[in-house]
Amino acid sequence: MDRYVIAGFPVKHSRSPAIHGRFAAETGEPVQYDRLEIAPGEFATQVREFAAAGGKGCNITVPYKLEAWQAAARRTPRAELAHAVNTLRFDAEGWAGDNTDGAGLVHDITVNAGVALKGARVLLIGAGGAGLGALGPLIEAGVAELVMVNRTVAKAEEAVARHASLAQAHGVSLRAGALEDAGSGHDVVVNATSASLAGAGSPVAASALRPGCLVLDMMYGPAARPFLAWAREHGAVTRDGLGMLVEQAAEAFQFWRGVRPSTDGILAALRAEVD
Ligand code: ATR
Predict the structure, then answer these.
(1) Distance of CA 185 from the midpoint of ligand 1 (Å)
(2) Do residues 182 and 265 both lie within one domain?
(3) Are residues 144 and 228 in the same domain?
(4) Is the CB of 178 under 6 A from ligand 1?
(5) Nearest residue (CA) to ligand 1, atom 14
(6) How many helices (H) and strands (E) does the chain have?
(7) 10 Å Cβ neighbour count for 239?
(8) Is the CB of 20 under 6 A from ligand 1?
């Protein structure tokens, strides 16, 4: 069996082992996938130990995506731009880092939810580890306009500056702003903040939403509920982060094994466990 883990703190409730277990069964790939909880300050040491003991790769979640980016010897172009890595593969010639979050998000919106991103006006709230991976793939999906807002404006400005030439190449109008500067009437709004964990209300004003727009929270379960309930009150169609979780996992599986597993059926099964 080839061993992989989800590395983070905490990871007790992570659904990734169940998802990758199903991918392994479906594809017949000899993959074993477990949790590796890593205490603050121990990321590089513990992942090195896991790799030395024969581990083949890992997923990375809060709060280690930046450390994983730094630890990678090589990065895919989308990971390079994101400054965040959620997938490491321990190749003989050095660790390869990828970021599959944004591709998972785009797949979930366009394929699972059936909402077009081409030509859409999109608001991305949050410039932390979860939000950074989304910028590049949203640009490449052909959105017309992309606004990234964050409580700490400088973080959004840095991320947007890194993506400026990609946006220009795709004809996308890209800007950064403060939460109060979210603009109005967006077609798709993605919450990549952890504001709801802190019990805070919506990070942006309701004028950011166009009636009937899609509002997606990257979180799922109880953590996503208050923000999504607020969005529904203001006329939005809502979606939590479970579909994105499954799709980013499928992308990671492909990065490791060279085959993209089918995600059909998994979302419904997970939904029954989470809600
Ligand atoms: P993650 O990996 O989940 O993105 P993170 O890197 O700690 O975790 O980022 C959390 C995100 O939620 C950030 O965008 C953060 O804003 P800052 O960059 O200003 O810290 C945002 N966030 C957290 N609590 C918030 C709150 N109460 N209101 C608005 N944004 C909040």
Answers:
(1) 23
(2) no
(3) yes
(4) no
(5) 126
(6) 11, 12
(7) 23
(8) no
52, 130: one domain = no
| 62: its two tokens | 């809060």
Strand partners, 179: none
Is the shortest distance between the CB of 203 and ligand 1 below 6 Å?
A: yes
Instruction: Write the Ramachandran bin of 56: left for phi over 0, alpha for psi from -120 to 50, otherwise beta.
Output: alpha
| Same domain, yes or no: 248 and 264 | yes
- For ligand 1, atom 24, the nearest C-alpha belongs to 195
Q: Are residues 230 and 254 in the same domain?
A: no
Q: Residue 67 belongs to a domain with what CATH number? A: 3.40.50.10860
Q: Tell me, yes or no, whether 106 and 35 share the same domain.
A: no
Per-residue pLDDT 10s for the chain (275 aa) are 999 999 999 999 999 999 999 999 999 999 999 999 999 999 999 999 999 999 999 999 999 999 999 999 999 999 999 999 999 999 999 999 999 999 999 999 999 999 999 999 999 999 999 999 999 999 999 999 999 999 999 999 999 999 999 999 999 999 999 999 999 999 999 999 998 888 778 999 999 999 999 999 999 999 999 999 999 999 999 999 999 999 999 999 999 999 999 998 899 899 888 87
Q: What pLDDT, on the 0 to 100 scale, is given for residue 274?
A: 82
Ligand 1 centre distance from Cα of residue 192 (Å) = 8
Residue 66's domain spans which residues? Answer: 2-99+243-274
> Looking at the structure, do residues 144 and 219 belong to the same domain, yes or no?
yes
Length in residues, the chain: 275
Residue 152 CA, closest ligand 1 atom number: 19
Contact call for residues 34 and 11 (beta carbons, < 8 A): no
φ, ψ of residue 137 to 5 degrees: the values are: -60, -35
